[in-house]
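Note to self: keep these together.
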Amino acid sequence: MTEADLAIEAMVRRGLRGRFPNDAVLGEEAGLEGSSNRRWIVDPIDGTANFADGVQVWGTLIALAIDEVPVVGVVSARRSASATRRRGAPAPG
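Structure:
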């Protein structure tokens, strides 16, 4: 865990609280906050060792599960990608 992990997760949590105040958030660094059936799952820096070593192979992962079923996932690494339940991810463009 780095200070950047903590700062990014805190930033994501603030953004989610502002937009979806009743939703729960499960973060890799700070654990679970809230008890809604809508739960955001956050990994602020997937690849922390690379990030800390200056290797540009890492990303931020955010997903939404409703009633424990994943419905949306977003990966932001050099490019961003997303997928939704039943629709999958769009073809790279």
